[in-house]
Amino acid sequence: MQFKPILPKKDPFKGLTKKVQAAKVEMESFVTESIEFLKEYPPPWSGYRRTGKLGRGWKKRKWTVVNTTLYSPLVQGTSARRRKVFKEHGWRNVEDVRRQIWPKHRNKIALLLGTKTGFKLRVEE
Fold first, then answer.
1. Distance between CA 19 and CA 56 in Å, rounded?
2. pLDDT tens profile 26-42
3. Domain count, the chain
4. Structural domain includes residue 107
5. 67 FRET partner, CA 20 to 30 A, in 33, 41, 50, 117?
């Protein structure tokens, strides 16, 4: 058995205005920048061996950034799930993305679409 996505015959973005297309590009830029931001590791602080699995786990799924590595919430998750030791040693987390990266992209998207900056970023674990 196999599953195939049902795709439109025509490009769904072809008829959109230049503003909406520019906003789409800005959203893609946000996703890419977020992944690169979260992939960076802080300097090692003990003799443990790093595998790079956590950094490689950050992926783009449409306009969503995900990491399915089992321990990612403990290292880079929200303050509620994240272990204190990882914050103390400089690991970036999803809340850092919301505070540091999202605001500049949110404002650009709002300007492109001619709206107020009412866009929010939802973080789920």
1. 33
2. 989 999 999 999 999 99
3. 1
4. yes
5. 117
Q: Model's pTM, two decimal places?
A: 0.78
**The two structure tokens encoding residue 120:** 């929010």
Is 83 part of any domain?
yes
Angle between helices 102-113 and 18-39 (to 10 degrees): 180
- For residue 58, list its beta bridge partners: 67
Q: How far apart are CA 122 and CA 78, in angstroms?
A: 11
What tens digit of pLDDT does each residue of 51-87 get?
999 999 999 987 788 999 999 999 999 888 899 999 9
Report which secondary-structure segment, H or E, holds 18: helix 18-39
Question: What distances in angstroms separate CA 19 from CA 35, 97, 109, one per listed residue?
Answer: 25, 25, 9
Integer Cα distance of 43 and 88 in angstroms: 12
